[in-house]
DNA sequence: ATGAAAGCGCTAACAC
DNA sequence: GTGTTAGCGCTTTCAT
């Protein structure tokens, strides 16, 4: 059934080495020989067994990507970008989702050392620094998303404080003063939304506007329903913000839905800025202004980090000496020091008030 | 630095077989021995090399899923469900997207025979029957999505004609008579939207309503922008439908946006039904009525199809003739005949007119 | 330029 | 119950 290198070699009357040479495009093969072997390959319909190749080379060509939730379009779009970026380096992507649960995140970081993968790109939500400090196995690990851990792994995230400040500045320039922040999580300061909340505070302070903590609305999760609940809670508490900066677009969308239900107009009564630049945000009754992280850059940098460290490991191994004297050098810094990489972002300002003009 | 079975065996002073027995939870091991080996495993931090195991067993525990586009929330959500369904069978998922391009779809079906995967779940958009007829390699292939090919592969899709008829019937019962269909593709009748268009025609005919072909709007793609363009074209052509049945929710959302821009009210002026049950559809200014395919069932059936055929192949091929002699041709059917599986669907009727009540 | 042979790390006969 | 050993299919020195 399954035809192997040896079968091809026998069929062509040559050694396996020669067939291997042809398959791997080794340059020093005579054209005649190459053709003969190629014919045998075609005759038998030979396909190399990648698993065997991987075992031999110690590489699989697969990198894993673990995001919280594919149902969140941000992560879905990011996953698509990672797949494309990986393909550019001849890598395929094993996808997993953690549902933002710490145990699942932990499982991913620990389990992947035994997996058939060369490296892992992880977007943690709940994971703590100490979970990672224990070490994560043999392959390179790169963290994406806004949390910052002081750990020896590459970390890729936009400057969330600056991005949040940009969003809040935009609302201030619109003349708004009671700017709510939707998407705080009370339990731990290291939560994902913390940096954006910090940005909100910093920008208000810089402009001399009082940061009213009553306008900070906590959320249970990061989806539309959570945004709706947060906005409803805010309004039920008697707050009347004139602007909303939401942790992400989904929360903003949920909040806008509630405002619509309660007869508040966006942006006249309440201006809204989200985060993530979901396509979805462009097609509501009101086009959502949003902070747009450069997803493609994030994806590309993450993949390049993995690929680079893999290559670095190779160089180091083949050269023997040199290296920065990192004894066991497994898992951590195996191709240079860890880096903080900062892709760009942009404020997509497009809070158009559709429908009104057309209606006259 | 990688510690292997042999290292553990030496460290524990036993044979590799014994270590392997412990690792694989082989029952007939004395507790004392088991503990001794386990300690050696812990001491050395041994992790089994899955690649080697895979090579040996001929299985990788990985199935591939290829969808058109992760940016489409329907496919993103489906991918999440497939990952969960696969995890229930101890499989992981390699994800790819074809961008709905025939060459990419073809590449996936052909390339996967050489991949490190046990099977493939493919949602084709452009692929033709003859592309698949050529054969696809060694592992099981299962097709999902509405296209029907008369080919020996399992195929999983809801009854699209019945689902479309349900949607149109709903609009007819609302008293609408000029029901547009958004999402036709003129080029080939085997295109994805064909069955839904058929359902539209069939239901109108059954109710004695003239199917006005001028109300059938073609699209370039399946995204929001395509729905917006199609709706705009329809209106620009002077058509005034009182209802819209869209091929999917994204097209419906794009169309609603255009209606909003032109002062048409949903659902008063134009009632809308979409398809896919995206969460997004529940959070617009108007909650979108939609046909909801049972995504989890689709995912589960697809995974079970692969897993089942893999198991079947095992039973059949347990006589692995090696060495001398003529290899008796191992047949094509590897686990039973191909099946058509039909998960359910439901009409999610929730075209509420929010905002008015609250405002009134 | 091509061939012979030694494993990569693991599992599963088959012995003891 | 535990040890020995032969490969899974491939790449890769080391010869020739």
UniProtKB/TrEMBL annotation, chains A, B:
<keyword id="KW-0804">Transcription</keyword>
<protein>
    <submittedName>
        <fullName>LacI family transcriptional regulator</fullName>
    </submittedName>
</protein>
<feature type="compositionally biased region" description="Basic and acidic residues">
    <location>
        <begin position="329"/>
        <end position="353"/>
    </location>
</feature>
<dbReference type="Pfam" id="PF13377">
    <property type="entry name" value="Peripla_BP_3"/>
</dbReference>
<keyword id="KW-0238">DNA-binding</keyword>
<dbReference type="Pfam" id="PF00356">
    <property type="entry name" value="LacI"/>
</dbReference>
<keyword id="KW-0805">Transcription regulation</keyword>
<feature type="region of interest" description="Disordered">
    <location>
        <begin position="313"/>
        <end position="360"/>
    </location>
</feature>
<dbReference type="InterPro" id="IPR046335">
    <property type="entry name" value="LacI/GalR-like_sensor"/>
</dbReference>
<dbReference type="InterPro" id="IPR000843">
    <property type="entry name" value="HTH_LacI"/>
</dbReference>
<feature type="domain" description="HTH lacI-type">
    <location>
        <begin position="3"/>
        <end position="57"/>
    </location>
</feature>
<dbReference type="InterPro" id="IPR028082">
    <property type="entry name" value="Peripla_BP_I"/>
</dbReference>
<dbReference type="InterPro" id="IPR010982">
    <property type="entry name" value="Lambda_DNA-bd_dom_sf"/>
</dbReference>
């Amino acid at each position: 059934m399954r035809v192997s290198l040896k079968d091809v070699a026998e069929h062509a009357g040559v050694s396996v080495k020669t067939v291997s040479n042809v398959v791997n495009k080794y340059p020093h093969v005579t054209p005649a020989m190459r053709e003969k072997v190629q014919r045998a390959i075609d005759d038998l319909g030979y396909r190399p067994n990648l698993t065997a190749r991987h075992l031999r080379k110690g590489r699989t060509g697969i990198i894993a990507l673990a995001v919280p939730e594919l149902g969140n379009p941000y992560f879905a779009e990011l996953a698509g970008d990672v797949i494309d970026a990986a393909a550019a380096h001849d890598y395929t992507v094993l996808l997993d989702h953690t549902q933002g649960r710490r145990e699942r995140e932990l499982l991913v970081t620990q389990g992947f050392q035994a997996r058939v993968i060369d490296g892992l790109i992880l977007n943690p939500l709940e994971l703590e620094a100490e979970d990672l400090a224990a070490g994560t196995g043999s392959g390179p690990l790169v963290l994406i998303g806004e949390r910052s851990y002081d750990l020896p792994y590459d970390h890729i995230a936009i400057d969330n404080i600056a991005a949040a400040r940009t969003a809040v500045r935009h609302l201030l320039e619109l003349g708004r003063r009671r700017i709510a922040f939707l998407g705080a999580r009370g339990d731990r300061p290291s939560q994902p939304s913390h940096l954006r909340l910090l940005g909100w505070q910093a920008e208000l302070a810089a402009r001399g506007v009082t940061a009213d903590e009553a306008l900070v609305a906590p959320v249970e999760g990061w989806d539309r329903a959570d945004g709706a609940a947060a906005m409803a809670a805010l309004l039920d508490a008697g707050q009347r913000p004139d602007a909303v900066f939401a942790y992400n677009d989904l929360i903003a969308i949920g909040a806008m839905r509630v405002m619509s239900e309660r007869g508040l107009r966006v942006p006249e009564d309440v201006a809204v800025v989200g985060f993530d630049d979901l396509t979805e945000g462009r097609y509501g009754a009101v086009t959502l202004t949003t902070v747009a992280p450069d997803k493609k850059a994030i994806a590309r940098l993450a993949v390049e980090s993995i690929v680079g460290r893999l290559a670095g490991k190779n160089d180091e191994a083949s050269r023997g000496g040199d290296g920065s004297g990192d004894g066991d050098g497994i898992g951590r810094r195996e191709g240079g020091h860890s880096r903080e990489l900062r892709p760009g972002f942009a404020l997509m300002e497009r809070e158009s008030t559709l429908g009104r003009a057309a209606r006259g």
